[in-house]
Amino acid sequence: MMGFRQSFRFRIIALTILVSGTVLLAFGLASRYALYLIKIDTVDQNLATRPLPGFPDPRDTENWKRMFEAVDQVSNKLYEGDIYLIVYGAEKEEYFRSEYWPGRLTLDSFPEVEGELRGMRVSESDFNPERWLDSRRRRGKDQFGPGPGPRFEGNPPDEIRRGGGERGRFQVPEPILFTRSSRDGPIRFGVFQFPGFNVTLGVELGGVAKEMEHARNAFIFSLPLALAVLAFGAWLIASRAIKPIRKLTDTAGGMSAAKLDERIEQGDEDREFSELIQVFNGMLERLERSFHQATRFSADAAHELKTPLTILQGHLELALQEAPDDSDQQRRLGMLLDETQRLRGITRRLLLLAQADAGQLSVKGKPIRLAGLVQEMMEDYEMQSPGIRFSTTIDDDASAVADRSFLTQILQNLLSNASKYNDDESPWIDVICESLENEIRIDISNGGAGIPESNQDCLFNRFTRVDSTRNREVDGFGLGLNLSREFARAMQGELALLESSSDRTCFRLTLPLGGER
Q: Cβ-count burial of 377 within 10 angstroms (0-12 exposed, 13-18 middle, 19+ buried)?
């Protein structure tokens, strides 16, 4: 579900498969039902075309038996399934029933008999199943037409007479068609109603069921292939549709202060995406102009403040020297001098940050052996903070490509923070410097309460001092970590908070591996 919500391409493919699959499934079900109706209609037509050579007297069991045997021999050509025959009267009495009639199938639900039974006499010349079958085989017919009808004693009834003359034939009525279920499967019946008796012909729908099963299996096999083709087509369409979005993403992802002048090239995109690219390029132009104005203002302001602050500091130092010792004037001048020095420090850092924003930090990267530099700085802090327990683990061969001035400022800032915000009862600082396959890692850890999780995301923001204890009583401007990260990134490295728990805080500095060993 997360991938469905986040990926436009996946959503297009999923929706295409869903809609197309639904349409194909509905089409398949409708086609299967239509095919079933066509098959049943074919069976009904064969049933309606009297597949019997004639109708003997319903009580003439022997002739009905001979007739059914003749028909049963060729029934598979027509029906592709077993055929059943039953002749019954008005009281549902059975005159004839084929040998394999389904045992559980009763006549209760079959149509009632209409009219009264008339006496009929059928001669051998009028009805001969073997002769009829031979004639059908000679003609090679698969469809069974009406055969010779029986002869009546006297004139046939008007309701079943067709044509004039003393010797009429049955006018075969339209059968009543319906389906019944049996143990062996569904059976399609056609009931021919004659005065006084009904002739019921049934055929198993096994052949129809097999054809429907083959059609179903073919559909089930082809549906995944069709959906796969549709998914591939949807993937191609979605890929083409999001191509301009990829341009926007790549441009936005590679944007930095040094690349604000980049623009997205317009090609043959659709009108909607062309308008979006124009809007995005206009936004980049406004952003570039505003950024340069802000950067120039910060750099100019910091640069212009340096001179008056330097003059102010010089006058305060001179006035402090001339003020009486231990006087209120001397204390006030000392406070003013401290604040002036803070302003100079902020101004210097703001100037560096303005240069970093503009991508104008001058980095002099060269291989530096870290063992001596880290050890020297640790010794200085051990002298400044004798109450803190220091421990170091340094790879003697570790060498990084870095600017020595920037690297020194980063380490000074991290060690200064570790000293200021340490455990009050048993403070400690641990420094680990190790050389990996393609980078140098320097981990600086200290004790203390740690940084609240809610404040860790904004830890590297400018002028941010997240802990309430980190106030003006502790020296700092809230710019050190931000500036240290800018220095690290300018050297193709990174500075990050690795861990901050209730008793331990660790920062990690990574730098490119140096060539000097």
A: middle
